């Protein structure tokens, strides 16, 4: 980004925002959108699944260097110190452990990390009079829903994993807190399936753990990191027998965070704790996703049909009318853009 634009952004700062988990996938892409929208950003990340190198990528894209504090938010004392030193206008709380399968085997680690981090963030905000919080929730709070598409009013079902339960509990904690703190404002954002990379291919999805999500599995197979991939079941009651999900492009998702923050800071909300679904409203099957990849990459993917994966929901996709109406948010990209950018990123990072 040219120096002039960086100076402009600095001069016009809309507020100082703490992004927790800023070195992770969604956090780093959101930081780009926040900076380009005029926010001043500070990151906190303990690097358990993130890498500070991603902030160098953010600096290349935006021309702005973002500082990261290596702090474990489950550590109360260091978290409170960060808040007292930082004096933030708002917080976007991404930091969490997110592997569904791992959470089944290590539930206590998930409850400890995800819930203590949230409690300490809220405590830090209260202590420093910081009143605007965005919380990363997930479509996994809906569990196996009978209603499609799901709206924010669709009842949450039993969580399918300890991970999903930490998201339900996180939402509940914030709803209870908001009830007795009318001055505190929060948006609970339920993401569907985030995927893809920034169009520059300078940042994208990378993780300390081998990916298990569909899109990185596809790109890793195409580049040869995996010999083949498995489609988990083609005998479901869907249009082609494979499961249906709502894949949301990462920069569309990032944009929703900036809009939600504007909404809170400008006091536009009708209640001090609001929930928003963030998906495209379009269900895409696993086989359709694979064909979209093959089309944009001109590659034939080596896949086979395998058994169903335990715990998979058959179909889920969002009704995002509320985000459209209240935030003016509309996803602008589809599964082909997701696959194109994910593929570019896979080839660049090697
Ligand atoms: P990610 O793992 O890439 O990023 C999370 C970051 O938080 C990592 O960099 C990690 O090092 C950091 N972190 C974790 N625990 C921490 C702690 N105690 N203290 C400080 N830093 C800590 O994950 P992501 O995909 O960017 O997800 C961000 C958020 O969105 C998470 O809350 C996740 O549960 C939620 N979410 C993700 C998806 C998805 O498919 N990626 C879908 C729905 C919801
Ligand atoms: C998508 C579809 C698989 C890999 C997870 C979490 C959810 C949320 C988003 C955080 C499914 C199929 C996958 C493969 C396949 N995350 N698949 N072969 O399970 O919808 O959601 O990420 O909040 O909580 O559960 O995403 O990308 O793993 O799977 O056939 O090798 O792709 O069966 O139908 P999922 P996913």
Question: Could you walk me through the main structural features you see in this protein, from its secondary elements to its overall organization?
Answer:
There is one protein chain. The protein is α/β, with parallel strands linked by helices. It has a domain of 227 residues: Rossmann fold, CATH 3.40.50.720. It is 42% helix and 16% strand. It is built from 12 helices and 13 strands. The strands form 4 sheets. The chain has a 7-stranded parallel β-sheet, sandwiched between helices. It has a two-stranded parallel ribbon with strand order 7-10. Strands 8-13 form a two-stranded parallel sheet. Helix 2 runs parallel beside helix 3, helix 4 packs parallel to helix 6 and helix 6 runs parallel beside helix 7. It is globular. The two termini are 25 Å apart. The model has no long low-confidence stretch (mean pLDDT 95). Bound molecules: nicotinamide-adenine-dinucleotide (NAD) and UDP-4-deoxy-4-formamido-beta-L-arabinopyranose (WQD).
Name the descriptors.
7-stranded parallel sheet, 42% helix, binds UDP-4-deoxy-4-formamido-beta-L-arabinopyranose, 12 helices, Rossmann fold
């Amino acid at each position: 980004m040219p120096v002039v634009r960086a100076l402009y952004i600095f001069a016009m700062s809309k507020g100082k925002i703490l992004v927790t988990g800023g070195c992770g996938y969604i956090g780093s892409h959101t930081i780009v959108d926040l900076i380009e929208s005029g926010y001043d950003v500070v990151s906190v990340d303990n690097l358990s699944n993130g890498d500070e190198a991603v902030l160098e990528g953010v600096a290349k894209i935006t021309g702005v260097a973002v500082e990261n504090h290596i702090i474990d938010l489950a550590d109360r004392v260091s978290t409170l110190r960060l808040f007292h030193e930082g004096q933030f206008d708002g917080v976007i709380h991404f930091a969490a452990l997110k592997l569904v399968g791992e959470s089944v085997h290590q539930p206590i680690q998930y409850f400890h990390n995800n819930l203590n981090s949230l409690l300490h963030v809220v405590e830090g905000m209260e202590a420093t009079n910081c009143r605007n919080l965005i919380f990363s929730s997930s479509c996994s709070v809906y569990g196996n829903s009978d209603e499609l598409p799901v709206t924010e009013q669709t009842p949450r079902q039993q969580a399918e994993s300890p991970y999903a339960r930490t998201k339900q509990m996180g939402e509940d904690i914030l709803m209870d807190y908001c009830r007795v703190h009318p001055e505190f404002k929060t948006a609970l954002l339920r993401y569907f399936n985030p995927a893809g990379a920034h169009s520059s291919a300078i940042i994208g999805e990378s993780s300390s753990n081998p990916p298990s999500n569909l899109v990185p599995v596809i790109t890793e197979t195409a580049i040869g990191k995996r010999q083949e991939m498995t489609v988990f079941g083609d005998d479901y009651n869907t249009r082609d027998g494979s499961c249906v999900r709502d894949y949301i492009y990462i920069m569309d998702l990032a944009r929703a965070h900036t809009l939600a923050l504007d909404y809170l800071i400008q006091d536009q909300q009708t209640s001090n704790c609001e929930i928003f679904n963030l998906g495209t409203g379009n269900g895409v099957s696993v086989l359709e996703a694979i064909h979209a990849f093959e089309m944009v990459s001109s590659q034939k993917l080596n896949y086979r049909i395998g058994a169903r994966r335990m715990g998979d929901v058959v179909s889920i996709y969002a009704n995002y009318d509320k985000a459209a109406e209240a935030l003016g948010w509309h996803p602008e990209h589809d599964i082909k853009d997701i696959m194109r950018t994910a593929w570019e990123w896979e080839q660049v990072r090697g």
